[in-house]
Design a protein that fits this description.
It is a single chain. The protein is an alpha/beta fold. Helices cover 47% and strands 11% of the residues. The protein has a 6-stranded mixed β-sheet, with helices on both faces. A 5-stranded mixed β-sheet has the order 13-12-9-14-15. Strand 7 and strand 8 form a beta hairpin. It starts with a strand and ends in a 6-residue tail after the last helix.
Length: 553
Amino acid sequence: MKCLALDGNSLAYRAFFALPADMATSTGQVTNAVVGFTSMLVNLLRDQKPDSVIVVFDRPEPTFRHRMVPEYKAQRESAPDVLRQQMGIIRELLDALGVTVLDMAGFEGDDIIATVAKKCDEAGHDIVIVTGDRDSYQLVRDPHVKVLYNKRGVSDYALYDEAGIHEKTGVVPSRYVDYAALRGDPSDNLVGANGVGEKTAAKLVNQHATLEEILDSAEHQTPKIRGSLEEGRERVLRNASIMVLRDDLEIAVDPAKCLPKPNWVATRRLLEFLEMKTMTKRLSDAFAPWISGVIESDGIKDAADQAELSGEHSVYAIDGPTPDKIINGSKMVATVASHGGAVVVAVDDIVHVFEVAQFSALADLLGEAKAQSIPVVGHDIKPLLRHLEDAGLGAPNVHFDTAIAAYLLDPVDGSHALTRLVDLYLGSALPEGEATSAGELDFGDVTRSYSLDAASARAVAALVGPMTSALEAAGMLGLFTDVEVPLIGVLARMESRGIGVDRSGLVAIRDALAKRVNELTVLLHDLVGHEFNLNSPTQLQKILFEERNLTKG
C-alpha cells in the first residue's frame, strides 16, 4: 500500500505565489491558488499512483510551539484575503473529491503528517510526503517514508530518501533537528548559534552523537565557534525542543483506508462554478481508479444492472414530436429519438423498437407495466406521453424523468442533454455513431447489439440511482416525487387537449387594463402640458432633465 500525504497549506501557498493574481472567474473570484493546487494534485496522482490520499492543513489557532516560543513564525505576514478565500474553496473541492482532510487544534499539519508517517512505517506501508517545508526531512526513513519536496512553483519537485537527505544537508534524517537547531530557521523566525552555518552545523552533528555533546564541546572548538555555541546554547536547545515533529497525536485514521470517494456530480458543479472546464478531464483521469460506475459504450447495460434497475422499463425519450412534425401526412419524426420514426424501449436485456404505426403495441407493453406496478423511467418523457394521449392510448406509470431531475439539480444549464448527464453522473460517455433506424429492428425483435438508442435507454436506467441520491442530498427529492413527476402527465394532457378558459372574463380584464392605460396617458400629458410618446426614452429624457430640470442620476 502506498499513501500520499500532502501539506495543504504549503502547496496552496506555493501555488498562490507561482501563478498570476489576475487569474479569476467572470464574476471576479480569484482562482490562482485553486488552479495551481488542483494541477499539483493531478500531477502527483498521475506520477505517484498512490492507493490512498491524505491532505493536512494548519489551523488558525496558536500551537504549542507558539506558546513555548512567542516569536515562533512571528515575522510571517498573515495570508492575503484572496488566498484565505481560496483555501476554503480548496477544502471544498477536496471534500467533493472524497479526499481525507485532517487538521487538529494546537498542532501543525506537519505533526499530523509525522503521526500518519509513523503509522505507515509501523504497518510496513509506503508513504510519500509532499511539502515545501524542510522540517519534514526528519521523517524520512528507509524503506517506507520519503519526502517529495516542492522546491518552487507548481511542478518542480525532488524526491528524497535517506541518502537524498544526507546529500542535500550533509546529515542523516534522524539528526536533521540537531542540524536545523544549530543553523537556525529564518522561515520560522528561529535564530540558531550565530556564526554557525549549514556546513559547520553538519560537521558538528557528524562529529558528535547528540546536540548536548556538541554544545558541551564548545571549549574544544575554534574561538569563534566556541563563542557562538556558548552564547546560543539556550536558543539552540529551545529550537530543538520545538523543531521535533510530534508523531503521537490521537488520530483515528488508518492511512490504508483513506481512499478517495469522489462525488463527481459535486466536483463537476464546483469546477463549472470556478470556470475550470479544462480541469474536468484531468481530474476524472487522475481519480479514475476511485470513480465507480465508469461505463463505456455497451457497458451502460452493466451500469444499469449495477444500479439494480433491471426490473424497470427504461425509455429514452428525447426530442419528441410536435403536431407540426408530420411526414407525408402519416409518419412522424422520432417520438423518442431524434432520427427516423421509432420508439426504443429496453426491458431488462431485450430492446424493442416501435414504429409509429405500432404505438398500440407500445401502449400494451407500457399498460402491462402499469398493471404490474412496474415503473417506467425516461428522459424528457412528456413528448411520448403526449403522443400516447393524442392516439387515445393510456399513459404508463412514470417513476423518474432524468431531464426533469437534471433541471431541478441545475436550473442554469438549459440543455440537460443525456450525453452531459452520462458524463456528469456516470463518469462515462455514450457510444459514438449513427442511431439505429426503425427499419433495422422490428417490434418484438430481441437483440444484444446495443445501438446508440439502446445505449441511451440503458443509460437512462443507470442514471436513476445517482440522480436520486443527488436530489436527496439537495433536499429536492420530495419536490421531484410529489410535484414534478405527477405534473409530467398533467402537462402532456394539457398540450394534447388544450386548456379551458373563460373568454368573456379575459376580454373584460383586457378592456379594463386598456381603459386604465388610456386614463393614465391623458393624466401624464396634462401634467407635462403636451402630448408625448410614453415609450420613448429620448422624449422622457427631454421632459425630465430639460423641461423639469431634474438632476441626472
